[in-house]
Design goal:
The complex is a heterodimer of chains A (482) and B (112). Chain A is α+β, with helices and mostly antiparallel strands and 482 residues long. Chain A folds into three domains: 2-67; 81-120 and 339-480, no CATH class; 127-330, no CATH class. Chain A has 17 helices and twelve strands. Chain A has helices spanning 2-11, 13-37, 42-51, 56-65, 70-88, 90-117, 144-153, 191-195, 220-226, 272-275, 300-317, 336-374, 376-384, 389-428, 431-436, 445-471, 475-480, and strands spanning 130-134, 142-143, 157-164, 174-177, 180-187, 199-202, 215-218, 237-240, 243-251, 265-268, 287-294, 326-329. In chain A, α2 crosses α3 and α5 packs across α14 (389-428). By secondary structure, chain B is an alpha+beta fold. Chain B has helices at 14-22, 30-40, 49-62, 85-111, and strands spanning 28-29, 65-71, 77-83. In chain B, β2 and β3 (77-83) form a beta hairpin. In chain B, α1 (14-22) crosses α4 (85-111). Chain B is globular and about 55 Å long. Chain B starts with 13 loop residues before the first helix and ends with a helix. The chains are: A alpha+beta (482), B alpha+beta (112). The A-B interface holds A 1-2, 5-6, 9, 19-20, 22-24, 26-31, 33, 52-56, 58-60, 62-67, 70 and B 1, 5, 29-31, 34, 46-54, 56-58, 60-63, 69, 72, 74, 76-79.
Chain lengths: 482, 112
């Protein structure tokens, strides 16, 4: 109830203070009237009523202070006191701040990387229903002709898309756009419809694009980076490897393709011969990566069984070796083996740095404990002077939080530097790493907020033991000692 | 905060008790309370705004009085305070405590 009244006062503080001012002014006026009634001249009465019995400003301030949490003031006292105590013991402070700071720096940089990398959102509609076709070795050894066969006869798939590059599956997906390399994916025209990726601009591909249609779809990211977010980009003509293309769409925000690296442009698979007139494109032999959306109510094993039958048929007709068709869930990692590796590497690194943070916390808790033991007399004196035990615990907690905040500043600086160097390093590293880290910026608010929250918990945890220790202090015994 | 604004001759907390007592007869505005205290104490207790209004706010915060705007005897807008149920209980408790304390002080003074 008291809390409620306090909140209501503070919420309406402007009105509350105006009322208070009016009330005090009324008081003054009444006194002025009284003075006039007592025979004081009008002009003197005004001054006298102003002077009488205390300052009105002080009255207002004191009256307002009643409503404000008395704790705010003492919390500030605690912080100042804690900062002073930490400055008095520079060795302890330095060790604690550096240990915690290094741990926080490592954790933040890794968490930022993870966030940019593994948990990147994927705007594909119902991604659980989208599967990638692989053979028994986890590889995409399918062809466009095999895809045609599947698409024609399959009853378990509601859509089947193929993607490939000019020279194989993932290599050679670079085309020249005004002297710059852009990463391009060649896709069947139904690609965006099957994945449920809508166009932010333009109509996109229609399902019956002719072989000679040179149209392209731009990713939202490329639209911003390469085309300066041009609102009239749809219909614009661009030249890719000397072949003019017309932009017919910009994808929805956040979609960068279905392969491991970040695609910027999509071109119908049929346009390949336009770009490489001297190549011989053998639809039966050349590989394509296939992804499919399962029809309603179909389970992956049901679809796999059907596709295996169809594949056997197709391969026999074309004199190809048989292969097993398996369906895996589609992620950024088309190859499940790569995904597993990445997960393992990250899990290992993550547990290592969490361990480092744990060790740092244990060390700091130990330091705090040693410090608490050395401060028995101080704590005893405060208890003897009437400090409540809650107040002592709050003081310890404030000290931990001040320490943790200092460590957080150091840690974030370390993380920032690490990430800056990490990104700079990745730029010169292999193409694949660069494309993996494209979303990585040295400042990821989610990562920093998470680490901050973890740190607060850690600070509280590190206070538990010293607090228990302080609570057991008998002031009389502590003061008698020495 | 607190002690510095009490009239020097009052024990801490006594002002709150006295204000509550003046409200037993019915609602009063701030000036009225000050006048009543002055009158009843035969001019001994002259309470200034800087102790009266913080005390009233304290009583409001604790829910012992409630305030409503109304018209004063000469038709000016004034804030009138009334005792709440909790305020009546508080008054009884404080009064008992005060009498116990004063009795104790008197016993000490008589014996010493």
């Amino acid at each position: 109830m008291k809390l409620f009244r306090r909140l209501r006062y503070l919420l309406h503080s402007t009105r509350s203070e105006a009322e208070l001012r009016e009330e005090i002014e009324f008081h003054r006026l009444e006194r002025q009237r009284q003075l006039v009634r007592d025979g004081v001249p009008e002009s003197d009465a005004v001054a006298a009523s102003r002077r009488a019995l205390g300052s009105r400003t002080l009255a207002r301030e004191e009256a307002r202070a009643v409503w404000i949490w008395p704790r705010l003031e003492t919390i500030w006292q605690d912080i100042v006191y804690a900062a002073r105590g930490l400055r008095r013991e520079p060795g302890f402070t330095l060790v604690a701040v550096l240990a915690l700071g290094a741990a926080i720096g490592l954790n933040t940089s890794l968490f930022t990387t993870l966030n940019a990398f593994l948990w990147r959102p994927w705007p594909v509609q119902d991604p659980d229903r989208v599967v990638t076709l692989v053979d028994q070795n986890g590889r995409a050894t399918f062809s466009l002709a095999e895809r045609e066969h599947f698409a024609r006869y399959s009853k378990t798939l509601s859509g089947l898309v193929a993607t490939r590059c000019l020279d194989g599956l993932s290599e050679g997906c670079l085309l020249k756009l005004d002297d710059a390399d852009v990463r391009v994916d060649f896709v069947t025209p139904n690609y965006f419809r099957v994945l449920g990726i809508s166009m932010a601009r333009g109509a996109g591909f229609s399902d019956d694009i002719a072989r000679t249609d040179t149209v392209a779809i731009v990713s939202d990211r490329a639209w911003r980076v390469r085309f300066a977010a041009d609102p009239n980009v749809v219909g614009r003509r661009i030249v890719l490897d000397d072949v003019p293309f017309t932009i017919v769409g910009v994808t929805t925000h956040g979609f960068d393709g279905t392969s491991l690296d970040q695609k910027e442009l999509w071109i119908p698979i049929g346009a390949m011969p336009m770009l490489r007139p001297d190549y011989v494109f053998d639809d039966v032999k050349r590989g394509a990566a296939l992804s499919a959306r399962l029809a309603d109510g179909v389970t992956p094993p049901q679809a796999a069984a059907e596709l295996n039958t169809l594949s056997e048929q197709f391969r026999r007709d074309h004199g190809l070796d048989r292969h097993q068709v398996a369906l895996i869930s589609t992620t950024f990692f088309p190859n499940p083996a790569k995904r597993r590796n990445a997960d393992q590497i990250f899990a290992t690194m993550f547990s290592a740095v969490v361990l480092v943070l744990g060790l740092a916390c244990a060390n700091v808790a130990n330091l705090l404990l040693a410090r608490g033991a050395a401060r028995r007399r101080e704590t005893g004196a405060r208890l003897a002077l009437g400090a409540s035990r809650a107040r002592i615990v709050r003081q310890l907690l404030t000290e931990s939080l001040v320490l943790a905040t200092a460590a957080l500043v150091v840690g974030l600086a370390i993380a920032y530097i690490l990430l800056l160097f990490g990104i700079a390093g990745a730029v010169t590293a292999a193409h694949i790493i660069r494309s993996l880290l494209y979303d990585l910026s040295p400042f990821d608010p989610i990562a920093y907020v998470t680490v901050g929250a973890v740190l607060t918990i850690v600070a509280i945890a590190a206070t538990i033991l010293p607090a228990r220790q302080a609570l057991r202090i008998d002031p009389a015994a502590a003061l008698r000692a020495e | 905060m607190g002690l510095t604004n009490q009239p020097p001759d009052l024990l801490p907390g006594t002002l709150d008790l006295l204000i509550l007592r003046t409200l037993v007869a019915g609602e009063l505005h701030g000036y009225g309370i000050a006048e009543r205290l002055k009158l009843l104490s035969q001019d001994v207790l002259q309470v200034g705004e800087s102790s009266l209004y913080p005390a009233l706010q304290r009583l409001l915060l604790n829910g012992w009085v409630k305030a409503e705007w109304g018209a004063s005897e000469n038709n000016r807008r004034a804030r009138f305070y009334t005792l709440t149920g909790a305020g009546k209980k508080r008054l009884a408790a404080e009064r008992a405590e005060f009498e116990r304390l004063v009795g104790a002080i008197q016993r000490v003074l008589q014996l010493a």
